[in-house]
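Hey,
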Amino acid sequence: MTDTSTAPSKTYMMDFAHRYYNPREFAILLALLVACIWVRRKGVRLTPLLLPLIFLATISGISSRHGASGDRIDVFYAQEGKRVVRFQAPPVGAPDFDILLIQICSLGWDDLDAAGLRDHPFWKNFDYLFTNYNGATSYSNPAAHRLLHAPCGQLAHEDLYRDIPKDCYLLDELRRVGFRTYSAFDHDGVYGHFAEEAVRIDHADPPMPLDGLPVVEHNFEGSAIYDPYAVLEKWWRRRQADGAPRVALFYNATLLHDGAHFAKDKEWWKRDRGDRYHEAVLQLFADIQRFLELLAASGRPVIVVFVPEHGMGLRGSRMQAAGLRDIPLPPLTMIPVGIKVFNGGIPAAAAGSPRIIDAPVSHLALAEILAAFIRQPSLMAGDNSALMSSLPRTSYVAENTGWKVAEFDGKFYLRGKDERWALLAPDAVAVPNPRWLPR
């Protein structure tokens, strides 16, 4: 999350230092420092040597400047500004169902590759699996804003915080067509003003209280992270006591956030970061799997959308060190998105073969699916090949404050805080394989 209103914990700072400490590099830097002190005492000027080195460091990973991308990004936003998914109330007598949006922090395809979990059986739970889905950001707050603004085309980052047309708010649209809405988090929502922004910017409901639920982790700044299954199971009990015919949930989880660690692990920062992440992902999969089984046993029709916020940056790239997410490169924004229809008649997941959708899409496609299922519930159980093959496609553009990455003609471009576009060298951007099929 982006706000600094709560300082990182001391153990997280130790983890950060431990992660990047390299004895060989430290020795080299120490030798350079000693050399610089010696040279200065001898009266030698270092500027002629340092300027070329600074220049070379600046252009590392950038092959050339490119001025035309500014015009193309303007065209992209102009086209996106015209796209909107219209929600319609279900027909009279249509079966009722619920919609659960499960948004997970720090889980990208690249992280799954690094952790050896890309082909984990967890993915076979879903009826549809998107393998070329761009979340368009690499930070939590804007990720929530983008998901909950799904009915409209992709917005520029700064427009996420401005007034937008009323039919762009996903939860408002669901309310308008007959859904009662809820929010639930596995955290208190204080850091980064996450809960406050979700309510104010995205029109979400205040999150469900977490009193009495077990704490399984602590986040990097020391706040509690609650047991995901316990949170979801508590909400499900609340939903079952609710007489509303249709409800929708926005659930947000931080279990995988960088620096999050199991409460029982007192010296977590000494452990390998990849091992910790692998263990946390497996725990998350187990909790979500258990909740999915609870939904299946209920007999109630439910659509579950599993949609991460962004990746973790577990292994980093030549452009950006592991764990850093300022520049929204594809390994950070390409996320695994799954849809499961419970008690709605779709047999695909039961056979262990989710339908793979590898078209380049983003949140607008998700809004299109939900709107179609609401408008015509029979699509959940019948032939929806036409719907899935005609989903709105979205060109790759991803943004954070001050940084923008875009793909044009198969090449990636970066715009930084200087507002100039640069063509990224091919080996500076690792693009996840979009055509993976589960075993």
